[in-house]
C-alpha cells in the first residue's frame, strides 16, 4: 500500500493554483451533498482537515463525467 499525499487546504491550493482556498472550503463544507465525503478524499484528524490528493483528483475527474 502506498502512502497517500496529504495536504492542508492552504498547502493544496499553493501547489495547485487552479483551486482557490474559498472554493475548496465550500466543497469541503458541502462534502456530503457533492460526493466528496464518499470519495474519501477528505481526511479529518481532530479539527485538522487534510486532502488526499490522489482521491481528490479522482473525484474531480468524476465531476467532469457527470456534467
Account of the protein in words:
Strands 1-3-2 form a three-stranded antiparallel beta sheet. It contains five helices and three strands; from the N terminus they run βααααββα. Helix content is about 55%, strand content about 15%. It is α+β, with helices and mostly antiparallel strands and about 70 residues long. The chain has one domain.
Question: Which properties best describe this structure?
Answer:
3-stranded antiparallel β-sheet; 3 strands; 67 residues; 5 helices; alpha+beta; single chain
Q: Secondary structure elements and their pairing?
A:
Elements: E1 6-7, H1 9-15, H2 21-29, H3 31-34, H4 36-39, E2 42-45, E3 48-52, H5 53-66
Antiparallel strand pairs: 1-3, 2-3
Percentage of residues in DSSP E strands = 15-25%
H/E order of the elements? EHHHHEEH
Rg, Cα atoms, Å:
11 Å
* Average pLDDT rating: 94
Q: In terms of per-residue confidence, which ranges show pLDDT below 50 for 5 or more consecutive residues?
A: none
User: How many structural domains in the coordinates?
Assistant: 1
Give the fraction of residues assigned to helices.
55-70%
Shape assignment = globular
Global structural class: alpha+beta
Largest sheet: 3 strands, antiparallel
Number of helices: 5
Total beta strand runs = 3
**Main sheet: strand order:** 1-3-2
Amino acid at each position: 500500500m502506498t502512502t497517500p499525499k496529504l495536504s492542508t487546504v492552504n498547502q493544496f491550493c499553493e501547489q495547485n493554483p487552479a483551486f482557490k482556498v474559498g472554493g475548496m472550503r465550500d466543497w469541503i463544507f458541502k462534502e456530503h451533498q457533492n460526493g466528496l465525503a464518499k470519495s474519501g478524499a477528505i481526511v479529518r484528524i481532530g479539527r485538522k482537515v487534510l486532502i488526499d490528493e490522489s482521491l481528490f483528483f479522482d473525484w474531480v475527474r468524476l465531476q467532469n463525467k457527470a456534467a
